[in-house]
Structures are given as C-alpha cells and as structure tokens.
Amino acid sequence: MQAIRAVLLAAGQSKRFQPLGDKNFFKLGGRFLIEKQVETLRKAGVKKIIFVANKNNFTRIQKLFPKSDVVMQKNLAEGMRGAVLAAREFLDQPTLVASTNDVVEASAVKKVLNAKNCDGAILAQKVEKYFPGGYLKIGKGRIFSIVEKPQPGKEPSRFVNIVFHFFREPQKLVDKLTKASNKKEDGYEQALNQLFKKQKFVAVENSGEWIALKFPWHALDLTASFLTKQKRKISKRAQIAKTAILEGNVVIEDGVKIFDYAIVKNAWIGKNAVIGNHSLVRDSQISENAVIGSGSEAARSFVGANSWLHRNYVGDSILAENVSLGSGAVCANLRLDEEEIFVDIEGRKIGCGKNKLGCMVGRNSRIGVNTSVMPGILIGKNSFIGSGLVVEKNIPSQTFFTAEWINKAIKNKKVIPARAKLNN
Amino acid sequence: MQAIRAVLLAAGQSKRFQPLGDKNFFKLGGRFLIEKQVETLRKAGVKKIIFVANKNNFTRIQKLFPKSDVVMQKNLAEGMRGAVLAAREFLDQPTLVASTNDVVEASAVKKVLNAKNCDGAILAQKVEKYFPGGYLKIGKGRIFSIVEKPQPGKEPSRFVNIVFHFFREPQKLVDKLTKASNKKEDGYEQALNQLFKKQKFVAVENSGEWIALKFPWHALDLTASFLTKQKRKISKRAQIAKTAILEGNVVIEDGVKIFDYAIVKNAWIGKNAVIGNHSLVRDSQISENAVIGSGSEAARSFVGANSWLHRNYVGDSILAENVSLGSGAVCANLRLDEEEIFVDIEGRKIGCGKNKLGCMVGRNSRIGVNTSVMPGILIGKNSFIGSGLVVEKNIPSQTFFTAEWINKAIKNKKVIPARAKLNN
Amino acid sequence: MQAIRAVLLAAGQSKRFQPLGDKNFFKLGGRFLIEKQVETLRKAGVKKIIFVANKNNFTRIQKLFPKSDVVMQKNLAEGMRGAVLAAREFLDQPTLVASTNDVVEASAVKKVLNAKNCDGAILAQKVEKYFPGGYLKIGKGRIFSIVEKPQPGKEPSRFVNIVFHFFREPQKLVDKLTKASNKKEDGYEQALNQLFKKQKFVAVENSGEWIALKFPWHALDLTASFLTKQKRKISKRAQIAKTAILEGNVVIEDGVKIFDYAIVKNAWIGKNAVIGNHSLVRDSQISENAVIGSGSEAARSFVGANSWLHRNYVGDSILAENVSLGSGAVCANLRLDEEEIFVDIEGRKIGCGKNKLGCMVGRNSRIGVNTSVMPGILIGKNSFIGSGLVVEKNIPSQTFFTAEWINKAIKNKKVIPARAKLNN
Asked: What is the ipTM metric for this complex?
C-alpha cells in the first residue's frame, strides 16, 4: 500500500455546529479535534497531510501544523467539491480524502487504506435507525452510487458514507470534479457517482467507534467517548484538598485546585481549573482555567476554557470558552414529559435522539442569576441573558436578552418566549 | 370481654385528603396505613376484622387481607351510616366500629373494648383548642349525644368523638341506622344519638397519641409520629459511603445507596432509595426507590416512592409517588410574615394550625426547574408545572401549568395567580 | 500636649448610609462602631469624651457610656456647626472634634493631638483618585481653606479633610460658628475657613488606614478591615462538628454551632450563631444569633444579628438585623458586563468604585424563595419581597414588594421594574 498521503478537509463552515464555533478547534483533553484527527490518520499509516482550510482558520491551521501544506478553499459555497479541488496540485498519487466531520478509530482508516483489488475504498457505517446522511448503494462487491439523504424507508442499504475516501488514482476524481455539472453542495457526491461507473470502489465496514460531528450536541458524544478512553492521572502539581474525593477515571492536570468537600467522578480537569467547595463534577470535561464555583454540579457536560459556574446545575450541556453563569442559573436537561429533546437548527426542529440534553452556549456569553435555560436551547456567542428569566427559544449571538428584549421581540414578531405570552 | 370482632371502615373517599389519594394506602415505613390500623386492632385484642371498602379499593384491600371478609359500600353518599350497614350481616355479636380517619395507640382501643357496665363505649379525645369534629355531651357517667361541629365556644364538652366505637349489641345500632330519617352524611351520628337514649354508652378518654387524618397535611403528623417511634437500623445490604453521616434515629432499608457527604438525620429511607452527594435529609421519610438527587434538602417531609429531587429544598411537604422536581425548584414552607398557613380545601381556606407547611403534590406530577411553590399549595396528580414559575394557587390534576395556562385561566377568570396580575 | 478632651459628633442622620440605620451603632465583632471610635480616641490619649447625640440615639449613647457627658443636637439641619455648638459648654480648653464618619488608626489621631507650633491641626488624607469630600488648600506649612466638593480636576490639593480636628483654643471656633452667616450644612467648614485666616492650622497626613463611612457599602470595607485584624480564636463553648472546616483567620464565639461539612474561612462568627450543613462562609461577619442555614454561601458579606439564610448566595452584601432570605434567593454581586456597580442614593446614581457589590438590606426585611436581588440594590427596613421576583430597583421601607405592588407602581409611574416592562 502506497497511500501515505491524505487531504484533510477542514474548510467547512460548521454552520449546524453553532454556537460552538469551528469544529476543527473543539478542544478535548487539551487538544483540538483537528489534532486528534491528524493523530488518527498518522496511526493509520498516513505520512503526509495536506490541509484544506478556509480564510478564517487558515492561519490557525498553519501555525498548528507548521511543517504541513495548507491550502485555502476560497468559495465555500462549492462544498466538498471545491475543497478537494483546492488541493488538486497534491492529487497526483494515491490519496485519502478525510474530514473532521466524522471521528473513527485509526484501525478503521487503516482498513480503508489497505483495501485490495479495487480502485478506491469508502468507509461505510452500518446504521440501525435512520441517519440523515448519504447511503451507499452496493452489490456484487462494489459500490454503485451514493444516495444523498433518501427519504426514511427508501435507503438503498443500511450503510452510510463516512468521509474517509481512498482514491488510488485521485487524478480521475479531479477530472470528474472539474466536469461536474452540479457545482453546488453535493457536486462531490455527484462526481463520485460518475467515478463509480468507471472504477471499482469498495465499501469498508466500520467496526469500531463512530461519532458524527454535525450538530452541537454531538460534541457531548465526543466528550463522553474521550472520557471513557482516558486513564486515571493526577498531577503532582495540582492542589487537592484532603477531603476532596476523586472517584473513578479522573485526570487532573497541572495547577488544578480542588477545594474541600468537592467530588470529581470520571472527569477531565484541565490546567489551572478550580473545583470549588461542595461541588460535584461527573462524566464531564472541565477545560483549562475554568472555575466550577462552590455548590455547583456539572454532569455529562463540557465546560469550556475560562468558563465560570457558581452554584449552578449544568446537565448534558456544552458551554464554550469564557461563559459565565450566575448563582442559581440552571441548564435544564430533561423535559417534564421525559420525551426526546428537539433543537431548533436554522428554523428546523431536529430531534437529538435522546431525552437528556441541556443547552449549548457560545463563547463569552453570560447567564444571570436564577435564570433557567430549557433543554436543547442554543445561545449564541457574546450574548447576555438577564436574571430570573426562562429561556425557551434560541438566543442569537450579540444579544442582551432581558425582559425588555423580549418585549421588543414580541413587537417585531420575531420570537415569542413563554414569559412574553403572559401579555397576549 | 367478648368483643373480638371489628368493622374497619375504609370506604371513605378521602376527598379532603387530596391530592394524596386513598388515605388507607398512605404508606409509611413500607406499610399502608390500613395495615397499621389492623395491627393496632389486633394488638388491642380484635380477632376478626371485616373491611368495608369502596369500588376503587375493594380489590386492593382483598388482596392485602386475603383471609378477611371485605364488603363493598356502594353508595358512598350515605357516609358512615351506609358503611356500617354494608357490613350488617356481620353485626350479630359485640363489635368495634373503627376507621382509618384516626390513629391512636392499641392501649386506647383496648380500653374501649374493656369498658365495663355499659352497652357500648366511645373513644373520646380531650382537646385544648377548637377542633372541627363531633363533640360528646356527657354527664352522670354516660354519653347523652354527639354534637356535630358546634360553633366554637358552643361545644358541650372538651371531648371529641373518635371513631373507635364499641357496641355490645350492634343489632340495635343496625336497627337505628335503618330507621334513620337522615340518610345523608351524618345519619350515623343521628342514629347513635337515638341509641344513646335507650342504651348506656360511656366515653373512654384517650390518654395516648391521637392523629386525626382528615386533611393532607395530617400525613406529616403521621410521618413525624412514625419517625419518633422507629428504632435505629441500618441494613447490611445498603451501600453507604464512608463520608456519609447517619445521625440519630435512622432506618436504612435494603438496597439503599447513600453517596459521599450526604447527611441523614432522624429519617426512614426505604428500599433502593438513593441519597445523593451533599444532600441533607432530616426528620423525613424517603420512600422506596425515591432519589434525593445531589445537593437537595428534605426537612420534615414525606417523599413518596419513585419520586425524584435534584438540588431542591422540600420543607414540611408531601410528595406522593413518582413526583419529580427540577433543579432549583423549591417547596417553600414559611410565609414572609411567619403567620399560620391556610390551605384552600374545596374553595374554603382552612388553617393548618402551624406556621410551617410546604406543598402537597399528587402522584406523577412534575415541577420545572427554579419554580417556587408557595406554602400550603395543593398540586393535583398527573400535572406538569413549568419552569421559573411561582405557584400561588392550587393546581388541579391533569394540568400543564405554564405561562400559557395562566393566561388562559385569566381569560376564563378561573384563577388569578400572582404572576398573572402583572397583566391587569 | 494638653488635649485630653474630645467632642465626638454622633448626631448625624446617616441619611446616605440607609438602609443600615444609625452608623454609630453598626456592630462589628460584637461592638458598636461608636465604641470602637471611643477606643481609638482613648488609645490616642483622649481622657474625656463629650458625645453629641440626636434625639433618636441620645438615650442609647447615654446608656452605653453612663459616665460620659452626652449633649443633644436639636436642629439636625444645622449640621456639624450645630453639633459642635451643642457641646459649647465643654469647649473651654484644648479639644479634638471627631466623628464616626471616618475610621482611622489611633496613631493618626495621636499625631493630630501632638501637632507642634500651631493653633490647631487637621487630619488629611492623600487621595489617588477623586473623592467627593472637602479638600485642603495648603501651603507654607499651613492650611488656607477647605474647599467643599470641588469639581473633579479642580481640587486645590490631593489632601482630603478628615474630621479629626484639634483646636488649641476651641472658644475661637465657637465664636466663628456663632457668627457664621451660613447656618446650613457647611456652616462648620465656613467657620473653619474664617478661623484659618487668623490662626495657624496644620495638616497632619494620615499614613495608616482610612475608611470613610458615608454610603452603606462602606460597611463592607469596615468589615473587611475588621476581619483582617482579628486573631484566630475558637471558643470552647462552641459546638463544632468534627467534619466542619475552620480555615485561616477565624473567630468563633461562645454558643456557636457549626454543623457537619460546613466550611468557615476568614470569618467572625458571633455568639450563638449557627452555620448549617454544607454551608460556606468566607471573609464575612456572621453576627450573633444569625443562622446560615444549610447549603448557603456568604462571601465578603455582613450578616446581621438574628438574620437567617437558607440555601442562598449572599455575595458582597449587607443584611442588617433580623433579615430572612427564602431558599434559593440570591444576592447577586456582579453585573453581566462586569462593570462598576452604581447605587441609587436618593435618586442619584453613585458608583461604588468596584465591580463586585451585592445588596444592602434593612432590618426586619424578608426576601422570598428564588428571588434575585440585583447588584447594588438597597432594600429598606420592614419590607417583604415576594418569591421568584427580580429586584432591579431599590425597595423602600415598609413595602410588600410583590407582582401586585409592581403593578400599582407602574400605574402610579413611580418605578418601572424590569419585570413590569413586559407590560409596555
């Protein structure tokens, strides 16, 4: 096998991942997702990686991987097709096309790279229930086509396309991409379908873990997976009160302070983070410099760097960097009827597949004391939420959400939060 | 003394005991009230018990006491008169008529059964201040009549009728009951008054404990009494963290889990219940399978089977089975002016006699995060209360109490909760 | 030095110190401020103190200092001028005029008393940034005048007048005071300015601590200073649970009870106070008989005698005597934008100079469960605040602040709290 080259697509806009920013830079265990993805590729045998960036993350990626080639995709409207073409100068030998949208184990990627008797291979995930992705039409040991988001019940197989695509002759892919009549979002899949007519591509079934990283709550799956894999480690440069309890699979990094009567179970606590008196952290990542102020509980959550809690409950929630919650603010994570939680993604209600999900809050946002954020709510970055409110609708970025804001929004018929309904 | 037979009246509708269901099946220390009452009767010397049930609890009582006779009272509008008549076939020998409306000690019942030189005896409770019950007019060593709910100041004595009534010749009672002109609620007392003219009935003063079980908050008296009598016992099949503190008179049943830094004082913790980290339970019953989630406090309260708290304060409150409270929800138990708490019982404000009383919540109800329930509030069964609300009026059963609900209620002029007043 | 006599002005109305009552009787470490001030004077060498009281505190001061002369200032509108004149009968020998408006160290007062080669001396505080007080115009080793509240940038020096004023011949002061044309608030300063023309007064620079006690939040500075100076002491007559943690510089007085898993850091806990389970007290004074109920946190705060918390956060706040907070009530202490906190003092917004300040609550007031009090709010005495509210405006004394009250206030256009804005 010669495929020691990969093109890692990192130019996606992460639109449906908001308010959590660029998914490439979602940081778990002190490392960015893109770093983890690179590690996966290297473990699978990839020797050289070409990064496709966008104008916002180009410099950041260059700095992170100074020895690598980074190309920029200028027109993001061209989707994956444009992304691959942006790297066309490197597509002159066997190449793996990968992305940060899916997280799998290195062994799975290795299997794709080692596929025999074929012109290319695609990682395929068997799904038990409907997943809104591209399904592989397969038979006679080869792939016939990819069917993008078929109607439920109309799937051509139970195998979903995962973007670890190996091309023995990527020049032919470039050829099809260049000629693709559809130059929009699914031009890449269209080109693949053309290619499949001429070349033999095989589906390699993924047998290990698979985490699709499309919607913001998927970051919780990633966090849970990360925590499961970590090995207990407690820094000698952490200050841990004698009465603090560290239970199970915990990692405590340098400079962490854990105060009296705090309890930490199965969690990762980043550098210089503080866990206050009488606090409880379980199955969560508490990022570097974050403060879990006294009397708080974080459960199955991701708390970003420099974020502050104080006497809060944060359940199944994601707080990006530098988010603060006032005393008594609650991120609720369960509906009263205990049914599946739906999230409003760009105007569409998307079921998250679980009955426990809290809120997802963008960086630099603040939530006032005794405010209740309902399950599945998205709060944009740089927003302020007042005190004693109930947040039942997504809050955009850069918004000061107060009783006054609610009132204006009603006049403008933009949103009708629950409290406001009092006025009808 | 031959009276080894009792008719236990268990057909009452427990109307004024709502939302706590059938008082016969109020469960303390893992046993139903009716079981405790039967034990009292047996300890007092009763050998055979005939149960008078209604159509709703008939099967349940039969199953609970498979060797006993259970009769059904069909027309509940006929009150105690109808109840006793339902058992008339058994009223052919000395019989005690008892109910589950009053809880007394076995020694008191024994004194009633052993009353000498009389045709019958009635347990009489001396009261210090007005109690809304039936008062005994007594003199010359006998009872002249029962005066139902006299006006305060007009009581014929300080002795209140408690339904442990012994009849040496119950056939004569049946005779009066049959002929009673008043066939409604107090037909039984009317018949007794007729009987007292012919027969010598004596009042036996109750010298031990007495708990009347009329209104739902009386279940707290029952709980407190139960806890006082229990003896410290900690199951070896319970998992109790080393740092958990068990103080005073506690009973911990099999399968209980008590987490680190939890504190339990003078409480009964039923099978498989969980007491979470940093929680405090004092002077309370936590029923089987209930979960006192982390950071909660239950004080002088009854938490029913399968109920869930999480970071709540529940003071002087009663949560029936399968009630859940969201993080930060509070059952307030003290008025700002620290005056006596009144409860709305079927439209009438009834003083509970104390300045500390929380709420009483029917089974399967849910209360949202950061919601405040005011002292003395009744919440029906199967109701949902939204988040961040203040509940100042009783909530009926099967209601989804949200800002929207409040709004509708205002339009319909049904209730005007405090929040709603904002709209006037 | 003969000045062994002081006139201590204690007749001020403490108007801008409200709702905290008479500042003379603000009680720190079990002693009134006026007692501490007397101690400072005595340590500085003062042998005899004449107190100038008002009609409200006259008896109280007399009782506190039964061997001292106490005179009454009848017309408080005459300010310091009237106050000094009220004591004119004692002004026949070298005298220090002092007040309870400024707290300094005894050594500073001693330096004033020992000033050489002058007719009088005034303690002067060098300020780094603008302070709204009287500035000293000085030069050639003497004071020329006091300029009351000059515009910022127009200060005649960086030295602010502190009321420790020594007069070798106070009769001359009396003469000027009597003749002062301005008989209103600053008649005293006017008389001083007249005096400075005839006599040589010098400025003595304060080199130690200085706490001006003008606005209520200054009581927090006083508390912090007091705590810094105390020495660790734990009464043998206190009941302290084995698992309670006493950290740093703590004083625990007789009769205190500290429950399991409570944490007390750098705090003063007065007689018979109670610190409940899982509570955290840090950098605070908890006055006698106060109860810090379970699960509470008091940080950098003053909790008055007989006050009650229960599951609250009280940050950078002052609760006078007999104040109660319901479970979940929060005294917020930080704006969402983390900017300086302004307080409405008699209609004017005054910056407190810090970005952390909670609320200041007068005696006998009550705050309902889950209510949020915003930073910098003043709540008068004897007021009740309902449950689940957000308090964004000062609350007057004797007010029952509920949704109804808000509604009335809107109609009367008196105040427009945030919640109320929902109705616009």
From this structure: 0.90
